[in-house]
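Backbone-to-sequence.
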């Protein structure tokens, strides 16, 4: 059996025409074919129109999903591919930019031993019967260059919405899928190459649909970020140098996020410190607590919303805030102590002295907040007695030095 998967989202103006073409196509076929329309939360009449074709298309299935995220085509394709029962599974764009009759070209390649056969508009440009605008084609070419540099090698058109898979390959690849927007094609091909599957590009007819909802700039930008995500999600610490770099970035992503927040936090802290000491005229030791506390509040908000947002903690946001404040008190004491020693004992300028304390404070903050404030509930209770003792010792050291 052959399965044809059609992803849809608000396709009421085009889906009827496509399904009529499919009805005519199916009349010429002898093999059993199932058609799966996978709709990702359309809010128009797409699904109602599809329902009217159930009497015309024998094995027509409609998957209705509630659109809970901004992801579109990739998620719809994923759901359709994973429920498909065919030995060969094809997905095609809902507008049939590539005529469905071209499917025999892909199926012939699967029958000859390939695991994936993907339609291509780039191998033979004469097959493109109706072109996109010059700008859209230029954006596409730039994106394809980036694809070949960062992810998929040797494939010149990863984005054509006309691809065929052997069932075993489809299940293996789409169960591993993590990108669900426009970059999903690249991820699937990247995984296929990683797994050593046999892939071939097949020139197919293609007619640009001027009613396409794809934004050449916005969606190209999102697709570029998807390339980065692909390398991060599927990085290999034993792979190439690029793989190792992406592995390190992804493996320690919480620390890097904390560092980015820390950098913005430093701008807030340092900027306010500069204003208070140089504009308002406050002494460094009086200005420092004000700038640090302002930065603490800024830091908590962004760490809670971004850095540790996916951690499942048992503490309420109020408890997290007060623990964060307490940890930050230790960081403040560490900063004050370092500033005191460097500025008053060694005569280093206050701004330079403060800069030298920043890396120490960053590491201190990260270690205590990741292990206490935002600690995963599954890891049990934090060793908070030791943290309190440590902060108390810092307080004593600071008071001794300050007196």
């Amino acid at each position: 059996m052959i399965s044809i998967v059609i992803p849809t989202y608000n396709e009421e103006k085009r889906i009827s025409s496509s399904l009529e073409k499919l009805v005519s196509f199916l009349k010429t076929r002898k093999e059993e074919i199932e058609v799966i329309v996978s709709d990702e939360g359309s809010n128009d009449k797409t699904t109602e129109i599809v329902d009217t074709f159930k009497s015309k298309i024998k094995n027509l299935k409609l998957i209705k999903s509630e659109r809970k995220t901004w992801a579109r085509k990739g998620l719809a394709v994923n759901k359709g591919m994973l429920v498909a029962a065919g030995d060969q599974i094809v997905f095609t764009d809902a507008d049939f930019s590539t005529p469905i009759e071209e499917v025999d070209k892909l199926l012939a390649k699967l029958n000859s031993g390939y695991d994936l056969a993907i339609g291509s508009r780039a191998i033979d440009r004469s097959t493109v019967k109706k072109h996109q605008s010059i700008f859209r084609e230029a954006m596409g070419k730039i994106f394809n260059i980036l694809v070949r540099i960062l992810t998929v090698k040797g494939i010149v058109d990863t984005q054509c919405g006309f691809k065929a898979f052997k069932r075993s390959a489809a299940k293996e690849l789409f169960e591993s899928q993590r990108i669900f927007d426009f970059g999903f094609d690249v991820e699937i091909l990247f995984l296929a190459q990683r797994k050593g599957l046999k892939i071939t590009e097949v020139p197919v007819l293609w007619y640009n649909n001027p009613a396409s909802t794809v934004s050449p700039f916005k969606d190209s930008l999102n697709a570029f970020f998807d390339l980065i995500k692909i390398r991060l999600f599927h990085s290999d610490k034993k792979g190439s140098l690029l793989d190792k770099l992406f592995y390190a970035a992804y493996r320690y992503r919480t620390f890097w996020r904390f560092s980015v927040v820390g950098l913005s936090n430093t701008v807030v802290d340092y900027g306010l410190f500069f204003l208070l000491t140089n504009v308002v005229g406050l002494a460094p030791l009086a200005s420092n607590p004000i700038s640090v506390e302002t930065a603490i509040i800024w830091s908590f908000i962004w760490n809670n919303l971004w850095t540790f947002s996916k951690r499942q903690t048992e503490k309420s946001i109020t408890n997290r805030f007060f623990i964060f404040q307490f940890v930050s008190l230790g960081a403040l004491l560490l900063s004050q102590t370092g500033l005191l020693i460097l500025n008053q004992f060694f005569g280093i300028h206050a701004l330079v002295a403060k800069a030298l304390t920043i890396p120490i404070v960053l590491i201190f903050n990260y270690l205590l907040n990741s292990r206490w404030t935002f600690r995963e509930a599954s890891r049990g209770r934090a060793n908070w007695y030791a943290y309190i003792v440590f902060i108390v010792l810092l307080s004593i050291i600071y008071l001794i030095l300050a007196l």
